[in-house]
């Protein structure tokens, strides 16, 4: 018996170690690709770098590329199965989500023209505040006073960071805040419109259904805002190497999101996002030479603590829900066993009478 236990223990440990290492690998891939896409977009849009300040066009290039790849994977090579989706479900669920996604990407990419990478990451700390607030308004989240106090603390921290921003630009801040609101609304609607109807989308099917919708929505402001400026310049013919590689990174990021969430959890992605934000702030300060002030860091530090506490509460809630689910399953199993025992007793009593 001792030998059997001793031989099983290393196998368990090796399996656990492998699982942990794979989780770190998924996190590393997502952080790398997310980091790369953000810096790449900043490089293209910033007037001091590549100097191609056309955020709608850039977003449309991404959506067009992703739509094409997804179409070939689903329809031509049939590597990914489609889901049964009626026209009504598409119009009532996918179209609003696609519109919000288009607005979020448009505004967030536009913000890179006016704000530093470090300050944008600080403003993105407001995402939990926006998701929770919109969730409460749409009755998807339960209002709790302690959670709201935490949300206020995060908001105060971001406000302090904004106060200390050396290159503050009001229009850029409005664009980024608008992107946060639209993205938070999209995330809540995904839960309400798709999850409630039992529809689950992987990244390929998501791009297959949502990316063309985003492209069409973006084409309207593009015709009014950017087409007149682009048509009169040589910028209308972008470098295929630069934009092709940029679009490939954006597509790979969508796959990495699925890999990370599918193999770990959405909470792991939130925690990894905090690590990525600190790395981007450090890169922005040391390589791009964006100015980061002590007030910036103090404010973001306060917001960071609030976000960490929020993630901790989410983890505790998930564990409590899982424990409750296991308890219910155990009660149901015990009930089935009691029923089986009762039936066996009845059969035994019947045999004794005979």
Walk me through this protein's architecture.
With 354 residues, the protein is mainly alpha-helical. The chain has one domain (20-343). 82% of the residues lie in helices and 0% in strands. It is built from 12 helices and no strands. It has helices at residues 2-45, 55-76, 87-114, 117-123, 127-137, 145-163, 170-194, 203-225, 227-231, 240-263, 266-286, 294-353. The chain is globular and about 95 Å long. The mean pLDDT is 86.
Termini Cα gap: 47 Å
Percent of residues in beta strands = under 5%
* Class from helix and strand fractions: mainly alpha
Structural domain tally = 1
Rg (CA only):
25 Å
What general outline do the C-alpha atoms trace?
A: globular
- Largest sheet descriptor: none
The number of helical runs is: 12
String of helices and strands: HHHHHHHHHHHH
Average pLDDT works out at 86
Which bin fits the share of residues in helices?
Answer: over 70%
The parts where pLDDT drops under 50 for at least 5 residues are none
Instruction: Tell me how many strands there are.
Output: 0
What is the element layout, followed by pairings?
Blueprint: H1 2-45, H2 55-76, H3 87-114, H4 117-123, H5 127-137, H6 145-163, H7 170-194, H8 203-225, H9 227-231, H10 240-263, H11 266-286, H12 294-353
Provide a concise account of the structure shown.
Helices cover 82% and strands 0% of the residues. The protein has 354 residues and is mainly α. 32% of the residues are buried.
Write a concise keyword list for the protein shown above.
single chain; 354 residues; mainly alpha; 12 helices; globular; Sugar phosphate transporter domain-containing protein; transmembrane; membrane; Sugar_P_trans_dom
């Amino acid at each position: 018996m001792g030998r059997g236990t001793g031989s099983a223990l290393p196998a368990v440990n090796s399996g656990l170690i492998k699982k942990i290492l794979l989780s770190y690998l998924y996190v590393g891939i997502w952080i790398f690709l997310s980091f790369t896409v953000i810096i790449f977009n900043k490089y293209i849009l910033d007037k001091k770098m590549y100097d191609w300040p056309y955020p709608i066009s850039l977003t449309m290039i991404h959506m067009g590329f992703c739509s094409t790849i997804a179409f070939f994977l689903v329809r031509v090579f049939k590597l990914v199965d489609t889901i049964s989706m009626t026209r009504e479900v598409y119009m009532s669920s996918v179209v609003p989500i696609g519109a919000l996604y288009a607005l979020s990407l448009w505004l967030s990419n536009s913000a890179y023209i006016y704000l530093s990478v470090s300050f944008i990451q600080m403003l993105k700390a407001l995402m939990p505040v926006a998701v929770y607030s919109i969730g409460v308004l749409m009755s998807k989240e339960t209002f709790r006073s302690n959670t709201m106090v935490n949300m206020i603390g995060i908001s105060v921290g971001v406000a302090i960071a904004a106060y200390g921003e050396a290159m503050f630009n009001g229009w850029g801040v409005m664009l980024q805040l608008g992107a946060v609101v639209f993205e938070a609304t999209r995330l809540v609607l995904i839960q309400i419109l798709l999850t409630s109807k039992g529809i689950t989308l992987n990244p390929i099917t998501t791009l297959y259904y949502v990316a063309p919708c985003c492209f069409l929505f973006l084409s309207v402001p593009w015709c009014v805002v950017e087409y007149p400026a682009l048509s009169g310049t040589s910028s209308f013919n972008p470098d295929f190497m630069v934009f092709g590689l940029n679009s490939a990174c954006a597509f790979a990021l969508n796959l990495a999101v699925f890999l990370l969430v599918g193999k770990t959890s959405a909470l792991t992605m939130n925690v990894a996002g905090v690590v990525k934000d600190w790395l981007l702030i450090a890169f922005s300060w040391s390589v791009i030479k964006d100015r980061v002030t002590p007030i910036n860091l103090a404010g973001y530090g306060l917001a960071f603590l609030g976000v960490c506490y929020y993630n901790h509460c989410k983890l505790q809630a998930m564990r409590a829900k899982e424990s409750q689910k296991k308890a219910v399953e155990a009660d149901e199993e015990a009930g089935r066993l009691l029923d089986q025992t009762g039936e066996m007793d009845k059969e035994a009593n019947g045999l004794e009478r005979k």
